[in-house]
Amino acid sequence: MRPGVPLLVLLALCALAGVLPVVGLVPMWTWWVFVAVVAMAAAVDAWRLRILPTPGVSRQLVDVLPVGVPREVELELRSARTLRLELADLHPEGWQAEGLPLRLSLPGHGVARVRYRLVPAARGSFVFEGTHLRLHSPWRLWRALRTAGQPQQVRVYPDFAPLAKLALFSAEQASLLVGAHMRRRRGEGTDFRQMREYRVGDSLRQVDWKATARARKLISREYQEERNQQLLLVVDTGRRMLASEGGLSHFDHALNASLVVAWLALRQGDAVGLLATGAGHRWIPPRRGPGALQGLLNGSYDLQPEPVATDYLALADTLAARQRRRALVMFCTNVRDEDSEDLLAAVRLLQRRHLVCVASLRERELDQTLAAGVEDVHGAVRAAAAAAYLAQRAQAHEALRRQRVMTLDVTAADLPGALVERYLAVKRDGLL
Q1: What's the predicted TM-score (pTM) here?
Q2: Is pLDDT above 50 for 131?
Q3: In degrees, to the nearest 5, what angle opens at C-alpha 326 toward C-alphas 252 and 351?
């Protein structure tokens, strides 16, 4: 308990009143009586606050939240007595809360409901420790801080609203929405789909001559892209992915883009898995079907990048041991020239069985630095340093391409479209 403002005022008056007996204006016993009354009132009020029951608090909040999306939280309070109090919910540190702290009057034997808005700031598992209530004694001489309610654990996932929006469109429309530039090849693929009448533009290789002879008109075979293939998404959780852009780390951008590609691949009938390497290892075996995307979310929502070096050779060994079937491996990282030798060795190991695509995230500030005009010596040094760094990156990427590795050099904003476009190209060309 702590003294309230009225008690502090009374104590100040006691101190000032102590001057009156000294100067002989009032007898000393009157001052002692005044002090005794204040002390007794303070003691009685403190006792009444101590025996005051703590109100019950329950929180209405789902257990799974998307990161960065405002969510309304409702608190329900119950008390046997009428109270005036201040409330602050113990949400995880760093989250943005609008409407806290709250002041309210709680009716006796009634229920009060209050709401505030909360924005989760990061992915992972978090705990609401309870709710802080600041109660006041009946005479307002004391105040006490108590914790009410039960701890509640919540999980914060990547923002899956874009995936929900994409579900309203066909796979082709969704690919265009994320920025993929598709090239169509009508009727060609690797899996037979149906027989149909010949159309202008069909290749002669599609014509089924036996069916044409029976029907006495040209009949074409129509194929579709092969299904039941394997896509493995590999996301770097090392120090290269700590760079922040647009309020999210490069790792978050890579994870979000990977989930978009995973959703599309599952729509295409492929199996999708995920491997996180660098700071923390996480293996989610390839699965297909409606529950596969939820499995990816459950298995990756708490991954975080850390300031450690990524061991590319260990990554290749782990993946080769766990993924025996041939798959398209899409690896999201940030390639630097000092990593080139280790990355090349890891890629050669993976290429023995898999088709490898390396997506290298480029900082948007580098492009902005080169695009900005040079007005002084400092600007010239910055531009020269950015150009030299990009040249070193280009050399590392060219070394990968010489090994016949599909290599993407893109910014975080362009990553989803680039990954989807390359996945569709692999499917269209039958490279798996």
Answers
A1: 0.73
A2: yes
A3: 80
